[in-house]
Specification:
Length: about 250
């Protein structure tokens, strides 16, 4: 069955994907020819937001739904700012697991760990011995949910799961989200969402307000919840900003 992490790998020029991934990824490209550029814009956001959070003094990151490693990885960016940063990656795909453990390695002072976990099971994730070994949940943490929430339907309790993760983090923590949306071209996105479901993969594009709900009552920073290419206010016109159909935002826990 197709997998979003391996589809992203295909769009970004990687080779860690299977025929089912390529077939659905190509169907997306037929309907959305700029899909490769959108995938790259999403990855570029990760670099920008990680650098921003490290500059704010964050030294602990949780990246859920990390996907197949694509340099620069989150820990490379964060540890370039602060070498002692600790990063915990989490995913539930065995291909991702194999590559992450091989490529995402610690440096002399910082730490990198990978946990086989599912965002829909926050209790299991937060109770993991590996997580507790790497992170101090009494100190601020950046929770990264990059292009992952669209893989889970509301009926699976995803809002409650994200709320549990937010509640577990201390004051001064951050949450960063990117999420595909149909707001910029509803008919096309509805068509590819239907194709994904027909291939056995959940794909739930969400509106601006639906994505904002994942941030809870945390305080939005910088540009707010904006198109991914417009965070945080890079140069360019509005049409260019909306050429990548993702909402992106960062919020801080008071």
């Amino acid at each position: 069955m197709p997998n979003s992490a391996r589809m992203y790998d295909y769009w970004l020029g990687g080779k860690d994907n299977y025929a089912a991934d390529r077939e659905l990824a190509e169907l997306f490209l037929q309907k959305i020819p700029s899909m490769r550029e959108m995938a790259r814009a999403n990855r570029d956001f990760v670099t920008r937001v990680t650098h921003y959070l490290a500059d704010q003094g964050v030294r602990q990151f949780i990246d859920i739904g990390t996907g197949i490693p694509t340099s620069p990885n989150l820990h490379e960016t964060a540890q370039a700012v602060a070498p002692d940063t600790h990063v915990v990656y989490a995913d539930n795909d065995q291909v991702v697991l194999a590559h992450a453990r091989a490529l995402m390695i610690s440096n002399e002072v910082g730490q990198v760990a990978y946990i086989d976990a599912d965002v829909r099971e926050p209790e299991q994730f937060l109770g993991s011995a590996d997580l507790k070994e790497q992170l101090d949940l009494d100190r601020p943490v950046a929770l990264m949910l990059i292009a992952v929430l669209m893989l889970i339907d509301d009926s699976e309790g995803i809002h409650e799961s994200v709320a549990q993760l937010r509640d577990a983090l201390p004051s001064g923590s951050y949450i960063a989200i990117t999420h595909p949306t149909a707001d910029f071209d509803p008919p096309v996105v509805a068509e590819v969402a239907g194709a994904a479901r027909a291939s056995g993969m959940t794909f739930v594009p969400r509106s601006h307000d639906e994505v904002a709900a994942f941030l809870g009552d945390w305080e939005l920073v910088e540009s707010g919840l904006v198109p991914v290419k417009a965070w945080p206010r890079p140069a360019g016109d509005d049409a260019d900003a909306k050429s990548a159909w993702y909402w992106a935002g960062v919020a801080r826990k008071p």
